[in-house]
Amino acid sequence: MKPLIIYFSRTSNNENLAMQLQQRLNCPIKVIVDNKKQRSTFSLLLTTVLGLNTPITLPDIPFQDHDRFILVAPIWAGRIAGPMQTFIRRYKSRLTTVSFATICGGQPGQREKIYRQLTRLTGKDPASLLELQLKHLLAAQNPPSAPHAGNYRMQPADWAFFDEPITRFAADLDPTIGKSRSTQVAWQIK
Questions:
Q1: What are the tens digits of pLDDT across the range 87-105?
Q2: Which of 17, 82, 92, 131 has its CA at a distance of 20 to 30 angstroms from the CA of residue 184?
Q3: Is 168 in a helix, a strand, or coil?
Q4: pTM as predicted
């Protein structure tokens, strides 16, 4: 069975990460929509940190057609974004095998925190976890970019920096991927 990608993205960064994975895995994709689009940053962080449910909308998900689910969402204040937390709590009994991917600012020890939070939310350990840290991209730029990693919007050329870890993550989910793949990324960013 093909995996199903389910993503939430407030900016385009995690949406484009989900599309990168969809391209490599050739699988369906669904989006979670936050029903309160005009929230303040403070409101978003508070909802996320406190683990409160938030009103979300998503299309029909054919859970029975998939045995693996790839969740993609940002990390806010060291936690999985509130709308994705709400989705997981609502459907955790239907999420058989879960992998998680994020592109985020990056903090020391964050990967372990994400892993523990996913385990707590889903009731099982995630099969795999991909954390792409924007701080590494910004540090590698010549000259280094000035914006704070948490506020950075990925540019089309930036995705080449993360091509190898994205391909490895996809290959772990589908072993037929990756061995002969060129590092050229041929798709359009919104």
A1: 999 999 999 999 999 999 8
A2: 131
A3: helix
A4: 0.85
